[in-house]
Amino acid sequence: MTRLRAIAPLLVAAALAAVAVATAQGAGCDDPGRYEAAGDGYVLVGGCVAPGDLVVPEPAPLAPMADAETPAAS
Predict the structure, then answer these.
(1) pLDDT confidence bin for 15, thresholds 50/70/90
(2) 3 state SS for 1-61
(3) Which string of b and e fits 8-43 if b means at least 16 CB within 10 Å?
(4) Contact 31, 50 (CB under 8 A)
(5) Left (φ > 0), alpha (ψ -120 to 50) or beta: where does 67 sit?
(6) How far apart are the first and last CA of the chain?
(7) Tens of pLDDT, residues 27-61
């Protein structure tokens, strides 16, 4: 029983590693893409990510600043 307790975490880790490798191989992206220099930076050319795949939320509006003449509450 003691030997099983020592080996069980290693077996679980090996199984999880095998699942991770199988998942990465089955991701289905034939063209990983590449970065090319553009006028003001780099642009991703090719790849499996379309512009609509990445959803960027609108930034939250900033809270109004307190007046500089108002003393801070202490």
Answers:
(1) very high
(2) CHHHHHHHHHHHHHHHHHHHHHHHHCCCCCCCCEEEEECCEEEEECCCCCHHHCCCCCCCC
(3) eeeeeeeeeeeeeeeeeeeeeeeeeeeeeeeeeeee
(4) no
(5) beta
(6) 64
(7) 777 787 889 999 889 988 888 877 778 888 888 88
